[in-house]
Design brief:
alpha+beta
Amino acid sequence: MDYQLAQVNIAKFRLPPEHPVNAGFMDNLDRVNAIAETQAGFVWRFTGEGNDAVDVQVYEDPNIALNMSVWSDIPSLMDFVYKNDDHKEIMRKRKEWFDKIDFHMVLWWIEAGRRPTAEEAKIRLELLRLTGPSYSAFTFRKAFPSPKPG
């Protein structure tokens, strides 16, 4: 069986997502998502009614947004997150729109072709918070290799 890398990251808007102060982020979502979809190793991303997932309320707090995607491997995702200039520019400005969250990102391996759910993502993020990095929920800093084909 082959495996792919699932990732989720959450962000807590300082003000409601539709507030004008968030325009710099919201106006760039489609563009940055389109860039992600062209990257080597990109497989899938979670969306709601539109082209992003900002409208999907996964947490009780309506200001928490969830971004989830699947990639072929860790290096592909790392290249997009840390080397893509468009994504890096948004990351540099994140303090303008979002409050700091201690546990905001988690990675885990899934069977190729499977799509993780928002509820699964919440569980993985909580697992990371409670137990630290493990094979079931890890980070770029403390990553675990893909399972070997059986």
